[in-house]
Design a protein that fits this description.
Length: about 250
């Protein structure tokens, strides 16, 4: 038979364990509760990047230290354009563009010369980024499967589409003279040329990415498809159709 003293000891220990459990639960809840106002806080994107400018095209500038961002420079840099910044150590201050999370709009740019920072650019106007293409818009472009230069139904009426090919520049004779023409060369799985697309124009944004990705031979080209080349010329030259290049990239 258990004595009254033993029963009292058991009840006391049980009460003590219960108190510890309740106390620990309350403590965990308190630790889990955010500090007042903390739930509204969000990571702040740095407003300054420093490094060596690698690529500049139109109003777009590539700075490797600004990872995942393309820097937009609206206006002149000094008395010229941003190409003068390539190869120089610069410091950029700015902000992410509204509704364009991969575009960083430069407010000021400084260049380091002889160990000293010199002001090179101050934005005085609103950015105009009309040729920018985000991921959502890219998804609306259908990938073309062109298998034969005589099957014009494979591209006609497709509108905005994308192809996987290689950029080529060639000199052609026209009206007794020579001019340089840019093509996108399409090949089959064995590397044999299927045909080539005549490029009428390339947006600054596309050219900027061509420079960024210059170590890659083959890319995706986002196109606005235009006129088909006449069949007789097509068979002889392998030129399929005309197009404007809106963007180039790895996907």
């Amino acid at each position: 038979m258990i004595s009254r003293k033993s029963i009292s000891l058991i009840l006391g220990l049980s009460l003590l364990v219960f108190v510890f459990i309740i106390g620990g639960s309350i403590s965990c809840q308190k630790k889990a509760e955010p500090v007042k106002g903390q739930e509204e806080a969000a990571p702040v994107k740095t407003s300054e990047y420093e490094g060596t400018a690698k690529v500049a095209q139109g109003k777009y500038l590539y700075l490797p230290t600004a990872r995942g961002l393309d820097i937009a420079v609206q206006g002149k840099v000094g008395s010229g354009d941003i190409s003068a910044l390539v190869g120089k150590e610069i410091r950029v201050k700015g902000q992410i563009a509204k509704d364009k999370t991969s575009i960083y709009v430069a407010d000021t740019i400084e260049v380091k010369e002889a160990g000293q920072w010199r002001a090179a650019f101050t934005r005085t106007e609103e950015p105009v980024i009309s040729d920018y293409m985000d991921l959502k818009e890219r998804e609306t472009f259908q990938a073309l499967a062109i298998t034969n230069l005589n099957k014009n139904e494979e591209w006609e009426g497709k509108g905005k589409s994308k192809v996987y090919g290689k950029l080529l520049k060639a000199a052609v004779t026209e009206n007794g003279g020579q001019k340089e023409v840019s093509y996108i060369v399409l090949s089959d799985d064995k590397g044999k040329e299927i045909g080539r697309i005549i490029i009428d124009s390339i947006s600054d944004y596309a050219q900027y990415y061509l420079q960024k990705l210059r170590l890659f031979d083959t890319l995706w080209f986002y196109l606005n498809i235009k006129d088909t080349v006449d069949k007789k010329i097509r068979i002889k030259s392998k030129e399929l159709f005309h197009a404007d290049v809106l963007l180039s990239g790895l996907f």
